[in-house]
Prior knowledge:
7 helices; 16% strand; Dna-directed Rna Polymerases I, Ii, And Iii 27 Kd Polypeptide, Chain: A, domain 1; alpha/beta
Amino acid sequence: xxxxxxxxxxxxxxxxxxxxxxxxxxxxxxxxxxxxxxxxxxxxxxxxxxxxxxxxxxxxxxxxxxxxxxxxxxxxxxxxxxxxxxxxxxxxxxxxxxxxxxxxxxxxxxxxxxxxxxxxxxxxxxxxxxxxxxxxxxxxxxxxxxxxxxxxxxxxxxxxxxxxxxxxxxxxxxxxxxxx
Length: 180
């Protein structure tokens, strides 16, 4: 059993989203912008979220992912909408990936913002739920996803991703491949 710290949980979520989009980029027609420092505030990096997705051949962000190692609150949603407005961009989807449970009140609040913002869809999911959904839709890309995720995790220094997370991923990969 592996126990991951807060920074490892956030790294897991970041890398899972990036690896998913890298594995499916040609099928989706979307790409991940270069990952900015995941320990810096979005205001410092100039980004709208932790992971930004554009259409292939374009630089305009269409989807933004925000990783949270806490429960998402209404204030988090309001701050995300302020960032979008400040950048002057029309982000179509703003997705929070959280390590905590999401209350119905917060989900309802997020849904209520769609018409108010002119069509910004706000969704809140947990990291495992995101992966489960992605791998269900793109099950034929499972090996591509694992390859992309492994590259991201192993390329990161131990200060960015602990040895425990690297070992946990490699154990999970071995288990997944033994089931093929």
